[in-house]
Amino acid sequence: MPTRTLWPTVAVSALVLLSACGQEPREAPTDGDAVRQRAIDAQTARRRTGAELQDRALNRVIHAVYLCNNSERLSVDFDNPRQMATVRNSNGEAVDLYQERAADGIWYRASGYELRGKGVMATWSAANREPTECRAVD
């Protein structure tokens, strides 16, 4: 009888000891040429040329948030592949604008709405309201 009660304890102990066996973890180098090379490789991998950056911006949707002088908050999704922008105001109302050719900066308009700007500044014109100046915050 004592052998039967001892058997589960021996089995569990053996499993614990076996699971502790294994390879010791390798340590990453902390100094020297290997570390310098890893740092150089990491920086080089993140660098992009101007053409790559421009291509990336022109072929994706870019999100921006504007705060306007009339206390309105605009959430804008610039859909560059479709040459459109979707503007949502603080009330959740949305309007799709179509890109126009601008000499400099951005210009989107449709059905009495217009968003024009350069850099972080823009002018928002909504149907039957005075235009307001806005600043990109996001």
From TrEMBL:
Source domain of life: Bacteria
PROSITE patterns reported for this sequence: PROKAR_LIPOPROTEIN
Domain C-type lysozyme inhibitor: 66-131
One protein family per Pfam: MliC
Record protein name field: C-type lysozyme inhibitor domain-containing protein
Species, as recorded: Brevundimonas naejangsanensis
Taxonomic lineage from the root: Bacteria, Pseudomonadati, Pseudomonadota, Alphaproteobacteria, Caulobacterales
